Amino acid sequence: MPLLEIKNLTKIFTIGSIFSRTRIVAVDNVNFDINEAEIFTLAGESGCGKTTTAKIILGFEEPTSGEIIYKGRKIDRVHQNEKERRELLREIQAVFQNPFSTFNPLRKVDRYFYETLFNLGIADTREKAEEIIREKLSAVGISFEEFSEKYPSEFSGGQLQRISIARALLTNPSLLVADEPVSMVDASLRMSIVNLFKDLKEQYGVSVLYITHDLTTAYYVSDRIAVMFRGNIVELGPAEKVLMEPKHPYTQLLRESVPEPDPKKKWDIRIKLSETEQAEYLRQGCKFAGRCPKVMDICRKEPPPYFEVDGVQVKCWLYR
Amino acid sequence: MSFIKRYLLPRLITYFLVIWVGITMIFFIPRFLPTDPVQQFINRLVAQGTYMDPKAIEEMTETLKELYGLKGSLWEQYINFWKRFLKGDFGPSYYQFPTPVITLIKQSLPWTAWLLLVTTLLSWIIGNILGGLAGYFSNRRWVKILDSIAMVIRPMPYYILALGLLILLAYIIPIFPIGGGFAIGMQFTFSWENLLILLKHAFLPALSLILIGVFIWFQAMKLVVQSVKSEDYVKYAKMGGIEEKRIVRRYVIRNAMLPQITGLALSLGQIFGGALITEIVFSYPGIGTLLYNAIFTGDYNLLMGVSTLSILLITTSILLIDLLYPLFDPRVRYR
Amino acid sequence: MRTENLKSYYILDIFGKKRVVKAVDDVNISIRENEIYGIAGESGCGKSTLLKALFAAIEPPQRIVGGKVLYRENEKEIDVYSLSEEERRKLRWSFISYVPQGSMSVLNPVVKIKETFKDFIESHTTGKTKEEAYEMAKEHIKELGLPIEILNAYPHQLSGGMRQRVTIALATVLSPKVIIADEPTTALDVVTQRGVIQLLKEIQSSRQNTIILVTHDMGVHANVADRIAIMYAGKIIEEAKTEEIFENPMHPYTKYLIFSLPKFGDKGRRESAPGSPPSLADLPPGCSFHPRCPHAFDRCRKEIPPLKEYLPGHKVACWLVEEGKNAAS
Amino acid sequence: QQLPPGIPRNETFIADNLTGRAANPGNFNIWATWVWNDRGIQNLLLEPLWCVEYATGEIINALAAESPKYNSDFTELTIKLRKGVYWSDGVPFTADDLIYTIELAKNTPGFGYNSQMQQVKEIVKVDDYTVVIKLNAPNSRFHTYFLDRWGALRPLPKHVFEKVEDPLTFTFNPPVGTGPYVLHSYDPGGYWTLWQRREDWDRTPTGMLYGMPQPKYVLFITYGGPEKQVLAMAQHQLDAADLTLEALKAVLNRVKTARAWRKNFPWTVNIDPCVTGLHFNTAKEPFNNPEVRWALVFAIDIVEYAANAFDGAVTLSPIHIPLTTAYYNWYFTKLEDWLKNFEIDLGNGEKFKPYDPEAGFRLAEYARKRGYPVPDNPELIKRIFGPGWWKYAPDVAAKLLEKNGFYRDEQGRWHLPNGELWKITITTGTNPAHPGYRNAFAAAQAWKKFGIDVTVQTTDAAATLDQRGEFEVSTDWPAAEPWGGHPDLFRVLEPFHSKYIRPIGENAPWGNYARWSNSEMDRIIDEIQKTAWGDTKKLIELGVEGLKLLVKEMPTIPTFNYPGVIAWDEHYWTNYPGAENMYAQPYHHWPNFKYMLPFLKPTGRK
Amino acid sequence: MQVLKDLLRDTRFRFGFIVFLVLAGLSILSFFSPYNPYLWNQVPRDLPPHWPHILGTNSMGQDIFWKLTFAVRNSLVMSLIAGLVSRVIAMIIGMIAGYKGGTADRILMFLSDSFLVIPLFIIIVLIATMVKARLSLPMLGLLLGVFGWAWDARVIRSQVLSLRERDFTYTALLSGSKALAIVFKEYLPFLIPLIFATLIGNMSWAIGMEITLAILGVSNLDIPTLGTMLQWSINYQALLLGYWWWVLTPVITSIFLFIALYLISVSISEYLDPRMRIQRIGQA
Ligand SMILES: Nc1ncnc2c1ncn2[C@@H]1O[C@H](COP(=O)(O)OP(=O)(O)OP(=O)(O)O)[C@@H](O)[C@H]1O
Ligand SMILES: Nc1ncnc2c1ncn2[C@@H]1O[C@H](COP(=O)(O)OP(=O)(O)OP(=O)(O)O)[C@@H](O)[C@H]1O
Ligand SMILES: [Mg+2]
Ligand SMILES: [Mg+2]
């Protein structure tokens, strides 16, 4: 049984007031699941619905339709009572993109640690709490002394991101949702974070939903990867396969666009850039049709279904 | 079409709702005052020496109530008000019975409107320009001087400021008339001479209003500009070597104007209140003293008339500015 | 263009407390014509500060504390900081221009893009009518292959990538000799980033001008830069040709920077440099990298290593190299 | 430079508009709207049948040719009209106009005097100048509705009104009158009204009685608050104004040619027919007790009181009518001995004579100390500052209160018999220039000093609250004012009749918001009602009885005459009536103004 | 204390603060006044400043200096009440509207719109007229407070709205914090400068409004405040009679009070500006 199952998840945003509606299907019938002790990557370019998916899983947004099944139980955020809410908080925790805005700049960082522990009923005394905090901090390589009684601005981004992970770990969660956890962290520190996920998975069996547009780190850490484009998952499969032999033209584009730190590999072909985000969201058939080098007639008319190719699911008419 | 449906309609609905709430408040509040218009009327008569024996007074009270339409429950009066209002009628003034309120307002409104619209706009424009420049060149000497002047003038009790101006410019140096809206016996035909007379009479009231107004906007604008100044696009423009004049005009002021536009709409609504002391000090024939008397004599109809007008004015100006706002700020779209 | 012992500090006075941030300290670089010069380094090491100093557009609290910035224009070297404010203003955009870090908020939100173009054009050329300015902007946009409609759009109507490209177009509209680009792609996703870099490269190859490109993404550097300088805590610690740096990084920090990056097809474990960068207001004595350097030895803790040329065109500031202890790892 | 071309300043008299800005300046139909008649309508445009002249204590026959004549049971009244009077549009004034006026008033609800005219049964036109009015019931004072004292039913032009559809909404513009002036122009904003002397001024009662009014033009103008009037006077832009005492001082300081009723302190007009003071609500505890009321009188040091109120510039009056020259002679002289011997019972056989014949002198002494010139002649001092008042006797007050169960605590604060702290609220209006306002603060000061917690409630609804009895102490007139030019006290006493007493919450009659009544008083009132207007000897006798009763009961406290604060500027016009030249009352806003204008003399200044 | 020390380095704040202290000192002096401010005829009338009546006496026979001490105290207390009441309302409404959003937001913002639109001055004068006699100082403060919140509620709402989108809101949620805790612990620190700056602004407004109401004669003239002091002096023509000390005392005092409040507010809001604050925290 997978740890988390996402079934037919759809999220529609309506912009405007009661009198007008522009609908954006930010998440369009998305299905995937995350196994225990697995790093699952959700990749895709800016504005493709990654964060929205994460927020729904965390309960910060309500899905328009679809189900989220956690450990076999359907999660219903709306009708959840306080106890269930706390239980879930202990199970699923998150790390955000910008370490500097993860914590309130006007509050000391350690406050969040104590709050997490006390609010969720993990510790009842300060001593106990401190003990847990020490343990988790050491897991991310930060000492309690350099951590306590400090404001976020007193840390570097890398430190903060690790602290943020430590906070998420306080509850011993089974699933960590990490929304672009390294995109704001210096390249020189990036690996220390990514390695942490690897360690968490290996040592504690924590599953991670790793959201990123950085395919190299995705490749480095993840077991499976789903590539999203304008609300749809266009390709889903083992990371090695998807990234080394991308099937969907969009995945191919993504893969090619990663600048490799190797002066010998330089880009040569010019690429076509996206039209406006909204236009692509509102497109009828395949949403990538507007930019796809291999576009066919059918692509413009009908959205493609998933085709299973070589253990990878591809949403592209090419594989019909 | 979608502009109407999406943008205009919701705003119109709020517009009418707000008008309704405002008018309803104005309708009920004075009716809880102990001032009774009938009593006030009779009191004035007897206090001035008219001989009425006690019985006559009692009879008169009844007649007046009948005539004023003050019989019936509050609710009935409220409904009646709306019926009349929708026909554009506010009923008779009690204080000046039986003259219709509309007539009274028509006589006074042009004076208030012209004096206050002009001064509000002028002080808005001058204040914003000065404030804009002061905010941008905040280290210059003249800015510091202007700043200090603003700090002293702004908190002056308006009455004292107005009276001081009057004493200075109408008594000690008698260049302006000590009151009124125009010369005695003046015929209202157009001539340059008459216009000059009108301007001369309006000068002191306008000056007093503008002095305070300019510095209010000055201070507000200066603060806004100082924060706009640290926006990236201004810094970028400076780095890009764009001429200073251009930066001030097109980058700083244009952006800093946005909150000031909203401020203008709001301040337009307080015009009648603002007119009050001006009119008292300068005996300017506007709607302010009319309102003042209405309050003190329990002239509900007149009060309703003036306040309704005021509410209509402010809501309409807010609506208009709301509708025009996207022209100034492209980020707000007619969605 | 080159600098001589350039020092640019932030001198802060917060409610009476003095604080000095040595954001650029003793930097000597010289940039050649027609090259793409990359500057890499982690956040807060002083890259933007250096660029601003090079661009001669500093505002308090930033100050030039020492050194010179020299431009070579028409075979003449001019010391920009000896020029008057107005002369400097004139140099900008016509000789040197700037692509700012983060394009989110650098465009005036209340006017159309073409107006911004007009402002830049009119401020630096004389006798151009409004129409001519628009025409020039149009030409330029067309030349760069950007959609012409953007001229009539407001900044908020454009996507981040498009906006970044607009700032590039804006920076190149007057064909300056030098373009300074401060992390033009940092906030963008890979596909968009590629578009932006593509644009920069095209401009450089067609106009034959110089680009100074700052980014901490070594991948981008590898892709476009001719030479790369690595900055750490306000100092240049290594400078060499791109290939040279990637093949033979000498400074331990550079090594971390390059070898920590994961690559496709290689899942081997990679480590970041331990610890975190120092505060520029309070630098450790000696080599500022020594607290994080696994190979640090006594001299590193006491003396600041100078930037020296060890191989042709390859300069490093490291005592390890000096003392030949080049611990290859 | 204020006047329009063609209107020379030295032929114009500029007076201040007492009631301020006219809200509806284009309407001259004062029969329907009744307000703003002091901007020249009652004082220049219209003539009444009779008019009171209280400076001389006489009644002027204006449009009437002689005094009213009643039949023996007061059901018929014969009025003879003056001959040769013309309306300003050239139509002769006749009995028809008067008859039409009365009938219109009677038949138009909402019209002025509508309710009073219901008493009229029938009007008989004897000839063009004689009218007989038959009444439904006897009324010996019916003619007083036509007796102008600041309002009366003044005849209106039949030939104008009969053409009008709705006399209530008719604006009567341009107005037509029998007075010596006609409208020249007015400010649609309501700040001024300019009048012009009629060419045929000799065909008006004024002209016939006193000759040609001197100013060719009269301008009524509202400059604004007192400070504005001072400035205007300082620029000789205002000839006469009704001011506050302080503004008057400022005028006298600044304008060499300006003066007031008296050339020296106390400056104020003391012949106004109103007396000011305090009004107890006798329907409320503890003010229902005359001993408490008297105690509060003893708690007042009238000299300090007058100083606090008007810096001492007042004429004290211990009785419920103003001590104008006329009333001083008619009544005070007859009461003085009684007052001196009047005693109050303090219990335990203790008696106290409250009258203080020295009060006027003490007040004069205060003025002297303030540095004001005060005459030495005792008789003059009595006339100027008042003959006397009630003694300042806090100890007596304490005794009276203690007798009624009140007590003082250690801090000297008075408690009610039930133990509560005694708090008094004095209700008054909001006009700081008004003597009521000044009385309120002066009384509050006196009683605070005595140890009572007093607050002054200034409210625009004061009159309404008072009328409904929703007050404890108010500053209404201690009694309705007398006619001023006639010894009849019917007007003063009638409101105290028990048939008008109303419970709290309902409207009490003006002149008795105190809600006090007394069977003896009822008898006196009925008696006066049956006494003819001309029988002044009997009227005075009855009036004295009534006044004695009011003193004994003290339902309201009279303090001083209404101190009229009038200033005028002799820059362009002289011979304005003053204390030493008392040929007329000095108010420009009164109807009598027109009768004084013929006596003015131009100074010839340009 | 440290905060005060920092602030005192700012000349503007120093000036404002000293003036404010002097005025606060004056109001404390009122407790030691030898005269009852409600009694007249205590000292000779109309005297220009001289020892021991350092600000002279008025036409009612009161010592102006000692009267001023009460006036300053009362005006300050009244404005503080007005400021606090309206801050509390603005905060509650702004925070609920901003955090809850949806219908609650719409209703509350409609309410605040209505308050912005009604002719405030007219209504305040009306109500003041209605309750004037019973208009005690706290009542007046309350009245002004009830009408002074609408705009600031909007500002607070928009701040909360933008704070709600910041990641730390989610961090707090993930830490198990409830709405109330989030609003108070997370958002309040950001709002404090705003609240403080607007409090001072609102106090100025209330003092000004009180003066206007007094001049119109619709406040309780018995209570010594800056407004009623001015009103009495105007009524008694102090200006034209040359009793300049009587008019100028309340005028100059109120100008100084306004300037002090203004400078303090500008300086504090600059000091509390989160951007500056973070810098300071960073260096600590
Ligand atoms: N609250 C919202 N209301 C309306 N539209 C929204 C809302 N949140 C997100 N969207 C839209 O939904 C789409 C997907 O947004 P989302 O934040 O999930 O993208 P993302 O993949 O996380 O992008 P990024 O890489 O920039 O973080 C975008 O077009 C965005 O504009
Ligand atoms: N206006 C300023 N006032 C004070 N200190 C500043 C200012 N701007 C930058 N600094 C400090 O100077 C140092 C260098 O900043 P700079 O912006 O040059 O770094 P950077 O290398 O461009 O970093 P990033 O990659 O984040 O853009 C940093 O420590 C920063 O805190
Ligand atoms: Mg996202
Ligand atoms: Mg930077």
From TrEMBL, chain A:
Domain ABC transporter as annotated: residue spans: 4-255
UniProtKB keywords: ATP-binding, Nucleotide-binding, Transport
Gene Ontology BP terms: peptide transport
Any Pfam family matching the protein: oligo_HPY
A GO MF term: ATP binding
Entries under CDD domains matching the protein: ABC_NikE_OppD_transporters
This protein's record includes keyword ATP-binding: yes
InterPro entries: AAA+_ATPase (IPR003593), ABC_transporter-like_ATP-bd (IPR003439), ABC_transporter-like_CS (IPR017871), Oligopep_ABC_C (IPR013563), P-loop_NTPase (IPR027417)
PANTHER family in the record: ABC-TYPE DIPEPTIDE/OLIGOPEPTIDE TRANSPORT SYSTEM, ATPASE COMPONENT (PTHR43230), OLIGOPEPTIDE ABC TRANSPORTER, ATP-BINDING PROTEIN (PTHR43230:SF1)
Protein name: Oligopeptide/dipeptide ABC transporter, ATPase subunit
UniProtKB/TrEMBL annotation, chain B:
SUPFAM superfamilies per the UniProt record, alphabetical: MetI-like
Domain (ABC transmembrane type-1) ranges: 109-325
Topological category with respect to the lipid bilayer: Multi-pass membrane protein
Gene Ontology biological process terms in this record: transmembrane transport
Transmembrane spans: 12-33, 113-137, 158-184, 196-218, 256-282, 302-325
Protein location: Cell membrane
InterPro entries named among the record's database cross-references: MetI-like, MetI-like_sf
First and last residue of the signal peptide: none
Annotated source species: Thermotoga petrophila (strain ATCC BAA-489 / DSM 13996 / JCM 10882 / RKU-10) (Thermotoga naphthophila)
Family matches, as PROSITE patterns: ABC_TM1
Record flagged with keyword Cell membrane: yes
Keywords: Cell membrane, Membrane, Transmembrane, Transmembrane helix, Transport
Family: Belongs to the binding-protein-dependent transport system permease family.
Keyword Endoplasmic reticulum (UniProt): no
Main location: membrane
Protein name per UniProt: Binding-protein-dependent transport systems inner membrane component
Any one GO cellular component localisation term in the record: plasma membrane
Automatic annotation (TrEMBL), chain C:
Membrane spanning residue stretches: none
Gene3D superfamilies for the chain: P-loop containing nucleotide triphosphate hydrolases (3.40.50.300)
NADP among keywords: no
Domain ABC transporter: 1-258
SUPFAM superfamilies recorded: P-loop containing nucleoside triphosphate hydrolases
Alphabetized PROSITE patterns for the sequence: ABC_TRANSPORTER_1, ABC_TRANSPORTER_2
Classification via InterPro entries: AAA+_ATPase (IPR003593), ABC_transporter-like_ATP-bd (IPR003439), ABC_transporter-like_CS (IPR017871), Oligopep_ABC_C (IPR013563), P-loop_NTPase (IPR027417)
Alphabetically ordered keywords of this record: ATP-binding, Nucleotide-binding, Transport
SMART domains, sorted: AAA
One example GO MF annotation: ATP hydrolysis activity
GO biological process, one term: peptide transport
Protein name, entry field: Oligopeptide/dipeptide ABC transporter, ATPase subunit
TrEMBL record, chain E:
Domain of life, per lineage: Bacteria
Residues covered by the ABC transmembrane type-1 domain: 72-265
InterPro entries tied to this protein: MetI-like, MetI-like_sf
Any single GO CC term annotated in Swiss-Prot or TrEMBL for this entry: plasma membrane
Membrane protein topology class: Multi-pass membrane protein
Pfam families noted in UniProt: BPD_transp_1 (PF00528)
Segments passing through the bilayer: 12-32, 76-98, 110-131, 137-156, 190-216, 252-272
PROSITE patterns linked: ABC_TM1 (PS50928)
Transport in keyword set: yes
Principal localisation: membrane
Keyword Acetylation among UniProt keywords: no
Any GO BP annotation: transmembrane transport
Keywords: Membrane, Transmembrane, Transmembrane helix, Transport
Compartment list: Cell membrane; Membrane
PANTHER family documented for this protein: OLIGO/DIPEPTIDE TRANSPORT, PERMEASE PROTEIN (DPPC-2), OLIGO_DIPEPTIDE TRANSPORT, PERMEASE PROTEIN (DPPC-2)
Family affiliation: Belongs to the binding-protein-dependent transport system permease family.
Stated name of the protein: Binding-protein-dependent transport systems inner membrane component
Species annotation: Thermotoga petrophila (strain ATCC BAA-489 / DSM 13996 / JCM 10882 / RKU-10)
